[in-house]
Amino acid sequence: MAGRHGKFLYQRSGSPNWYLRLVFPPELRTIHKAKRVEVSLGTANRDEALVKALPRIQQHKQELLMVRSMMRQQNMATEFVHQPGREYPQANGSKIVATSAQLIHIDAGGSVTKIEPNQPREKTIWQTRPEEARALGVPDERAATMVFAKPAKVKPAAEGPDPDLQLLEDFLELQTRTKHYEADARRTWARWKEFVGGRSLSKCNRADGQGFIRHLKAQNPPPAPVTLRKWISLLKAPISHGLPRHDPRQDVFHKLIGKTRVQTKRIPLSEADMELFRKEALPHVGPEERLMWVLMATTGMRPNECANIHEEFEESGIRYLMLGVGERTKTETSARRIPLPEAVLQEPDLPSTITGRLFAKNHVIILKNLNRTLRRIGIADKRKVVYSLRHRAHDRLRAALCPRDIQLQIVGHDEATIHDDYGKGHPINILKQWIEVIGY
C-alpha cells in the first residue's frame, strides 16, 4: 500500500511488516544523497513499529523545521535604521537627527542640508541556529549577517506526575475509548505541551491557545477544518471535565474554534457504479478488502462495525451477527442482529464459523485501499466513497417498500423508538428475507 504525504508508516502489498518512509525536500537531498528512504521496521505490530521509528521521525521533523525556517521568513520585526529621537554624529562634523517621520541632515555649521523620510525596514528573524544554517550550506559570511531567534528558555519539569496529563488520563478512564482515540488524544496533548515549552495549563492563556491553532494551521499541507476542530476538542474535553467548576477564563481554547460543517455530503453509489466495481475492481483487490466491500454492500454496516466482528450466532439454521454487544456503538440503538446474506456466505475468505476477529488488518487501511480503488476505476465523484454503500442499502430497502421498523433493525438508527424496549425485534428469518433485497 502506498503511503500518503505526511504518513511515515505504511504496509507494502504482500508483506505484514510495517515500513518507514522519509521523503526529503530538495534542500536535504544533497545531505542525505537520496530523495527518500524506505526501510522495513521488522514487525507487523504497528505500535511496536512506531516506537522503533520515533527517533528517526523526530530527527526528520527537526530537519524539516530547520529547512522551512531557512526557506521562508517566519517572524518579521520592524525596526528603524535611525531610531526616532536620537542624533547620529558623522565623521565630517555633520549629524543626522531622526524623528518618527524624517531624517534631518545638518552640516557642521548648523544648516539643514537635506530632509528625507525615516522609513523602518523589515528584519528577518530566522527560527533556527547558526550551526544549523551552516549545515544546510549557508556560507559563513552570509550566516554572520543573519539574525537568529534566541532559544526559548524551558524550565526543567517538576518532579512527580504532570497535572495536565493527569487531566487527560482521568478523562480517558471515564468510559471505554478506542485505541485510536486514545492515541490521537495523547499525541495531541504531547504536541500542545511541546508548543508551550512544558508549561502547565495554569500558566497559559488564550494567546497561547490562539498561537497553537496558528501553529497547526501552518502545517504543510494545512489540516482540514474538521481535523483542526477534532484536535482542539481532544484538548478541550479533558479540560472541561477536569475543572471542578467550568470557568471559560481557565480554558485557553474557549470559543477559539467555531462549529465546522461537513464539507462533503455523501451520496449513494449507483447500480452502474456497483457493476463497474464488480467487474473492474473486485477480482483484483486484497481478500480483506473484498470481504469488507461485500459485507458493507449487502448489509449497510458501518466500517467500524465490520472491524469489530469476532463471533457469530445461529437461529433456525441462519448464521447471523450481533452488533454492538460489548462494543462502543455510534448510538445505543446501533446494537442489532444482522443475518449474513448469501453473497457474504459465498465469499471464500469467510470462515466456516467466525470465532475470532474477522479482519486482521486495520479497517482504516482497508477503507483507504477501497476508496483509492474507486478513484482508480473511474468513479471520480468525491461524494462517492465506501461509506456510500450504507446510503445505498437504505435506498434499496426503501425502494423495496421494506417496513420501516425492519429497515431500522437492519441498518441501525440514530434515535431510540418505543419498539426498542420490547423483546429482540423480528425473527431472524424475516430479517434474512429483507436483507437479501439489498444485494451488490
From TrEMBL:
Q: Where is the Tyr recombinase domain?
A: 264-435
Q: Which GO terms describe its biological process?
A: DNA integration; DNA recombination
Pfam families in alphabetical order: DUF6538
Listed InterPro entries: DNA_brk_join_enz (IPR011010), DUF6538 (IPR046668), Integrase-like_cat_sf (IPR013762), Integrase_catalytic (IPR002104)
Q: Name one GO molecular function term.
A: DNA binding
Query: Which domain of life does the protein's organism represent?
Result: Bacteria
Coiled-coil segments, which residues?
none
Listed A to Z, the keywords are: DNA recombination
Protein name, UniProt field: Integrase
